[in-house]
Amino acid sequence: MTGFANSEEAAIGLTHVVPFLVEDMLKENGGIYSKAADWQPHVVVDGNLITGQNPGSAQDGGRAVLQRLAADAAPSKEHQQSTAAVADGVAHHRA
Q1: What is the reported pTM?
Q2: How far apart are CA 63 and CA 9, in angstroms?
Q3: How does pLDDT run across 28-46, given as a tens digit for each residue?
Q4: CA 18 to CA 10: how far, in whole Å?
Q5: Measuring CA to CA, which of 1, 59, 74, 89 is 20 to 30 A from 29?
Q6: How many whole angstroms separate alpha carbon 60 and alpha carbon 43?
């Protein structure tokens, strides 16, 4: 997972304003936190969870969401095979 890095929060002077630091909270609770250099785009995809490090990650995050939605919408090979088998059975029954 990713989110604002501690160093990014510090750079804009918000470490004492936000209720907690995302990087610290994730690490303290057993999360696997990943980051890029400050202010660089960084997106992490874990199943249906898609997170971006900072506002610069919005475009890549949006792409990741679209890719995930497209993958979910595409029928699996098993579904295609079962649909073909049903169609074949219907065609055979009508003949």
Answers
A1: 0.73
A2: 25
A3: 999 999 999 999 999 999 9
A4: 11
A5: 59
A6: 7
